[in-house]
């Protein structure tokens, strides 16, 4: 006798675009990007793989939708016009994007490989460009600054998540780096090892973000 919880008996499981993306994000958090396949997602939803292609023609389309979902709410971090100095408002946006990507395992890897054009992603971009234009940056400068801030944030978070990924052979572990430096003649690296091997990624991020925003301030003049 079939039960309502059985995905293989009775009426077919009902899915839609929203539920599919949510299930994909759950699988991402559980197993990581490399293990996320359309077949595993279909199994989790209790449907045939073909049912997924009604909503996403390719896995890349699915990843783009996942990236768009991740960016939800990031645009609000800037606050209303006049809510702080332009550089602080821009910093809040960058921090919000990093936080959104860190909220999911391999979040930065998913986001980096997509070019979403949904309201969450475009809203974030529009907020950052708006902050810069309101501060007196030209349109071209604001557009390139958007790329610079976004690329820095995503790239930093990629490295951060790779370093913290267990057993995946990502960035060199602190012990391996110390041994390599000690085995050679690298006096400057030896002097800075405490910071180079630090896992205080928030501090690393804030330092780089400050350099970037100070550079933008110099561009504006």
TrEMBL record:
DNA-binding region, residue range(s): 37-56
Keywords carried by this UniProt record: DNA-binding, Repressor, Transcription, Transcription regulation
Every HTH tetR-type domain range: 14-74
Source species, domain of life: Bacteria
InterPro entries listed in its UniProt record: DNA-bd_HTH_TetR-type_CS, Homeodomain-like_sf, HTH-type_TetR-like_transc_reg, HTH_TetR, Repressor_TetR_C, Tet_transcr_reg_TetR, Tet_transcr_reg_TetR-rel_C_sf
Keyword Iron: no
Coiled coil ranges: none
Pfam family, one: TetR_C_1
Entry protein name: TetR/AcrR family transcriptional regulator
């Amino acid at each position: 006798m079939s039960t309502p919880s059985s995905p293989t008996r009775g009426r077919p499981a009902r899915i839609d675009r929203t539920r599919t993306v949510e299930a994909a994000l759950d699988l991402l958090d559980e197993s990581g990007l490399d293990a996320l396949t359309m077949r595993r997602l279909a199994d989790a939803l209790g449907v045939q793989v073909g049912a997924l292609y009604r909503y996403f023609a390719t896995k890349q389309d699915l990843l783009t939708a996942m990236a768009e979902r991740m960016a939800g709410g990031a645009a609000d971090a800037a606050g209303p016009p006049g809510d702080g100095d332009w550089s602080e408002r821009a910093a809040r946006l960058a921090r919000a994007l990093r936080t959104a990507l860190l909220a999911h395992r391999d979040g930065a890897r998913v986001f980096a490989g997509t070019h979403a054009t949904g309201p969450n992603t475009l809203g974030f971009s529009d907020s950052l460009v708006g902050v810069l234009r309101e501060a007196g940056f030209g349109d071209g400068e604001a557009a390139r600054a958007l790329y610079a801030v976004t690329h820095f944030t995503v790239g930093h978070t990629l490295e951060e998540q790779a370093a913290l990924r267990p057993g995946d052979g990502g960035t060199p572990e602190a012990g391996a780096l110390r041994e390599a430096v000690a085995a050679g003649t690298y006096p400057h690296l030896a002097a800075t090892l405490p910071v180079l091997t630090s896992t205080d990624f928030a501090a690393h991020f804030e330092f780089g973000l400050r350099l970037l925003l100070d550079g933008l301030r110099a561009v504006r003049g």
